[in-house]
Amino acid sequence: MSSTRQPVAVVVGATSKWQADGRNTRLAHGKVLDDRDLPVGARWGVGGAIAQKFAQEGFAVVLTTRHAANAEGLEQAIRAQGGTSRIVELDLVSHASISKAFATIREGVGDPDVLVYNAGYLEGRDLPPEKELLEHVPVEIFETAQHVASRGPFLVAKEVLPAMRQRGAGSFLISNNSSSLRGRKRLTGQSLYYPRVMMRTLAQVLTEEYSEHGVHVANVVIDGLIDSPGTRALPRAQKQPEIVMNPVKIAEAFYYLHTQDRSCWTHELQLTPFSTKPSF
Predict the structure, then answer these.
(1) CB 257 within 8 A of CB 250
(2) How far apart are CA 121 and CA 136, in angstroms?
(3) Integer Cα distance of 173 and 97 in angstroms
(4) Distances in Å between the alpha carbon of 10 and those of 117, 177, 202, 214?
(5) Over the Cα atoms of the chain, what is R_g?
(6) How would you classify the pairing of strands 114-117 and 84-89?
(7) What local confidence, expressed as pLDDT, does residue 3 receive?
(8) pLDDT tens digits, 95-136
(9) What's the confidence (pLDDT) of residue 262?
C-alpha cells in the first residue's frame, strides 16, 4: 500500500432508521422530527457517528444506504467538517446490488482498509401483541432479518476480505446488539432479532479464519438504546436519559478496535450504559 494512499473506511448502513426522517422514527412518532438542536454526532445514529469519526481521522469514508437521499445530510456534515465522503447505494437483500456497490467502491476509492457492518432492520416492530409467537411471524419478515443479519455480512465479507488477506491488514467490524448473545423471544414492538446470533457466529468464524492473515475481526455488542432523533424522543428515553448511549463514544470504540496493536486484538466488545445491567 502506497504511503500516500488515503485509507478507506466503508460503513454499511451509515444511516439510521431512527434519524429524523427514518422508518422507525415515522413508525414510533407518526411524523418526521426536527433534529436541528441535536448534536451533529447523534443525528444519524451510530452509523453516522462512526462515519464522522473515521473521516475526522483522515479516512475516505464511503456511506452505503439503500437510497442515496438518506445519507445526503450526513455526507454534507462530513464535508463541512473537512472530511472526505461519498455515497454508494447498496441493498443487502440483493446479491447483485452488493456486488455492484463494492465494484463501484473499488473503482472509486480502492479496497477498504476498514469495513463496519452496521446494517439494521425494523421488520417485526409493527406486529401487534397477539402476534408475538413465531407461528404468527410472516415468512417475509424472517427472510428480511436473515438477509441483513446473516446472508448480508457473509456476502459483504466475501467482497472485502480477499484484499485484506492479500494485504495482510484490515479490520472487519460488526455492529451488533444484545440479541446476538442468545436466542430470546421477540416482544411486542421489537424487530425479529434472533437471527443476529448468526451474525455473531460469523464474526467468530471469521476471527478464526482470518486473524492469522492479519485481518482484525470483531463483534461489537451495543447493549442499549442509542441516541438519535427518534430514540431521544421516546418516553423511556425522556424519563431515563441515563440509559441512552452516546453514539460519538460508540464510534470511538470502533476506531479503538481498528487501531489496536495486533499483539492484543479484541474480538468481542460489549458496550453497556452504567445505569443498566449488561445483557448475557
Answers:
(1) no
(2) 19
(3) 21
(4) 8, 20, 19, 18
(5) 18
(6) unpaired
(7) 54
(8) 999 999 999 999 999 999 999 999 988 888 888 899 888 899
(9) 96
